Amino acid sequence: MCAKSGGTNVFKDFLKYVSFNILGQCAYSCYTLADTFFVSSSLGTNGLAALNLAFPVFCFLNGTGLMIGMGGGIRYSVLRSCGHRDRANRVFTNAVYILACFAAAYTLAGLFFSGQIVRILGADETIFQMTNTYLRVMLMFSPAFLLNNLLQCFVRNDGAPSLSMAAMITGSLSNVALDYIFIFPMGMGILGAILATGMAPLISMAVLSVYFIKRKNQFHLVRCAPKGKRTAGILLNGIPSLVTEASSGIVMVVFNFIILGLLGNVGVAAYGVVAAISLVAVAIYTGLSQGIQPIISSCYGKGRRGEIQLVLKYAAVTMLVLSGIIYGVLLFGASPIVLMFNSERDGLLQQIAVIGLKLYFTACPLMGGNIVLSTYFSATEHPGPAQAISLLRGFFILIPTAFLFSMLFGMVGVWCAFPFTELVTVILGMLLYAAESKRN
């Protein structure tokens, strides 16, 4: 994978992996937009609020799958590039053991504790039943979500990014089609929305199955017991991916709590629009970071430091261009974008969400920089700095800032807490990168 002849081949690898992964992640984010659009059109403000309260759990679920897949994929790629195929297969097998444990935990939570979780998330009697339905069915599909993430990460690190992209796109487009069929012609409401979302990873894995049927996969299950050290290595490398996804859920939980106190369900519904679009932006940057990860890990395993620096330069330029496009679209198209999700033409919802889009997404280049930096540290097996970046932006800076800014500035403070957090984190991240580069 890593070039032997300098920057030209590295650039070709970068274009191939990054373009496939960004396209795949953009399609994957259609999960969110399709659910948000169809639920808002069918069930109005209450449906949108219910969806927004339940969705943070999906962020944790998706983050868990990425933690196992990315953490295992990074270690697999490094070992494979060094020629240690048996050890690489043991990593894959250990990742499957970890996945089985998490899948069981999520499924049991859906069966026995969904109501309690919905109460904790803040649902009132008006939207309790819709929120509980969405959450319970989502958790019942957790084995499919987790396994799909694991297989996509390993297939990508096995040298087949185009197939990983095709699987994501197929699953996502099927989700959009099924969303429409289940919600409108079949009249299934919010149950139809989550059934469509739950079936998408099954369809995605059906596409990936071609890779295994044709025996192209170089990773296999082998006879070995799970080991603590191997498990810890997978989880440590994957935690930044979990935190990146889970931070979206944490942001939603914290913001929902604050906004419920400020503006009630209408405010939560307005934030639901902003959050849905935010997840698309995160998906684009995640696609960029997942694209560079196999290249960086392979180069790291072969000791090619100069080529890693080239990949980072390409990633930085790409991130800035994407950020300019994203923010330009949202700045000048905020009103019609919000109107797409405001089926009841609620004036207060429209006003809150339009202002939110313009303020919240000033964080775009900062968010992109943090995600790329975190992935770089993980891909080179430096989990400490990667975890620091992820935890700072997802928890330790964001949560107190959100509460403080909301008390001082109301809704404007809520929107500005996110870009402020990303700014502080990217400064600290650059200092960590400078220190690591100096050591090398």
What does this structure look like?
The chain is mainly α and 440 residues long. It has one domain (7-439). The protein has 15 helices and no strands. The protein has helices at 7-28, 30-81, 85-112, 114-121, 128-140, 142-157, 161-183, 189-213, 228-302, 305-341, 347-360, 364-379, 383-396, 398-409, 411-439. Helix 1 (7-28) packs parallel to helix 10 (305-341), helix 2 runs parallel beside helix 5 and helix 3 (85-112) runs antiparallel to helix 6 (142-157). It starts with 6 loop residues before the first helix and ends with a helix. Residues 1-5 have low confidence and may be disordered.
Q: Could you estimate the helical fraction of the residues in percent?
A: over 70%
Rg estimate, integer Å: 21 Å
Terminal Cα span: 23 Å
Principal-axis shape equals globular
Averaged pLDDT, please?
89
Number of helices: 15
Percentage of residues in DSSP E strands: under 5%
Main structural class: mainly alpha
Task: Offer a concise description of the structure.
The protein is an all-alpha fold.
Describe the SSE topology.
Blueprint: H1 7-28, H2 30-81, H3 85-112, H4 114-121, H5 128-140, H6 142-157, H7 161-183, H8 189-213, H9 228-302, H10 305-341, H11 347-360, H12 364-379, H13 383-396, H14 398-409, H15 411-439
Helix pairs in contact: 1-7, 1-9, 1-10, 2-3, 2-5, 2-6, 2-7, 2-8, 2-9, 3-5, 3-6, 4-5, 5-8, 6-7, 6-8, 7-8, 9-10, 9-11, 9-12, 9-13, 9-14, 10-11, 10-12, 11-15, 12-13, 12-15, 13-15, 14-15
